From TrEMBL:
The keyword Lyase applies. SMART domains: OMPdecase. The active site is at K61. Homodimer. Its EC number is 4.1.1.23. It catalyses: orotidine 5'-phosphate + H(+) = UMP + CO2. Substrate binds at residues 10, 32, 59-68, 121, 184, 193, 213-214. This is Orotidine 5'-phosphate decarboxylase. The lineage of its organism: Bacteria, Bacillati, Bacillota, Bacilli, Bacillales. It comes from Fictibacillus iocasae.
Amino acid sequence: MQNTVIIALDFPDRSNTESFLRNFHGESLFVKVGMELFYREGISIVNTLKEKGHRVFLDLKLHDIPNTVHKAMKNLAAAGVDMVNVHGAGGISMMAAAKEGLYAGSSSGQNPLLIAVTQLTSTSEEMLNEELLIKGCSLDQAVLHYALNAKKAGLDGVVSSVNESTVIKEVCGSQFITVTPGIRLAGGKVHDQIRVATPRDAAIAKADYIVAGRSITEAEDPRAAYTQIYQEWSGQQHEITYR
Ligand SMILES: O=c1ccn([C@@H]2O[C@H](COP(=O)(O)O)[C@@H](O)[C@H]2O)c(=O)[nH]1
């Protein structure tokens, strides 16, 4: 069974990342490289993580005109990432162009998963309506609408909070994947997130992947925090997959 706990490697540089990964010596993980690390280290950090046997979600949330996103995706595909994303706010043609570019650039035979961010987990309904002026709908409706757009564009799934995962899967189908950040252990610090949930909530909501960053990276014992999240999520003892 594939490991579906994604650790967000939100570190300033390679050295901090490598020092964190020493907590998981020899283990094959599913990790997420976001803007902070990527803008410092570039594609070489993805290459290194892949060489070390980790699966990589490259979380750059592309959002631009279709032609630009098509070409950017083609380049990202060449790096052999396992999962990559765009902002659903870019629209259906942009998402379709992203898929075309990704598949054109992918050489490994297996295309990376392509998903769209619906509404960031740091967005509340009030913010959606009043600040972003997306009026006349609830946050759940907005997320579901973006998920349906992603499905129309042929994407594999979406990033949403755990709260919306169940309805997305009911409407878009069980094969349409949900990747859910905003994961916190009960009583854990929420930071800048709004729509948070526990790993257990995510399992009940039938999310396909959970993303956990600071609950692990800022923990006194990152390995213990990871193990607790893994067990709560999967209902199983953590089985180490060695590389
Ligand atoms: O809607 C979204 C999309 C992406 N993220 C990313 O996930 C992690 C969450 O980190 P935590 O430390 O567990 O809050 C982070 O890299 C975000 O960029 C998200 O949180 N919400």
